[in-house]
Amino acid sequence: MIATARLSAILPLAGLVLAPFLFVHARTALADLAAARQETAGLAVEATSRPPAPVPLLPEAALIPAADSDAAAALLATRLRGEAARGGLLVERLAPLPGPAPLVAARIVASGPEAAVLRFARAMEAGAPLIRFAGWRLEGAGAGLVRLDARAVALRRTR
Fold it and tell me: 144 and 98: one domain?
């Protein structure tokens, strides 16, 4: 019975000694809980907001400025024919090719001196709008001339 009396006198004192230590840990835990709830609320708002606008892969200057595929094919043909004429090449064949929108393609067969044909290909791929030769073949055309048979591909503006 004496031991119980001593224990009942010591326990409240022990609780008073330990309370500040428990308070520090409880305060830290409550602060962590508040931060977690705030982060969850922020993520919920972010999840319900609009997605960011898509980033264009190419600048506007690299696209053919045309409202539809036919106009884009005409602009591509004009660019190919004009650059070939500036380089002194003979355009033997130039025809639009079918393809999925916004892709515009044309087949060109042009002949001339090798250096002029290579300058033409370089100018087409370096200029604006951006035109790439997806498939091409160079073959001798006799008398120091070469013939370029290529599939020119470009992108048109969709908006």
Answer: yes
Helical spans, DSSP H, in the chain: 2-48, 69-86, 114-126
pTM here?
Answer: 0.64
Question: Six-digit token pair at 26?
Answer: 């409880």
State which residues form the domain around 142: 60-155
pLDDT tens-place string over residues 64-123: 888 888 889 999 999 999 999 999 999 999 999 998 878 899 999 999 999 999 999 999
Other Cβ atoms closer than 10 A to 127: 12
Tokens for 82, please give them: 């004009």
Same domain, 4 and 43: yes
> Are the C-beta atoms of 108 and 93 separated by less than 8 Å?
yes
Number of independent structural domains in the chain: 2
User: Exposed, middle or buried by CB within 10 Å (0-12, 13-18, 19+), for 74?
Assistant: middle
Query: 146 and 82 in one domain?
Result: yes
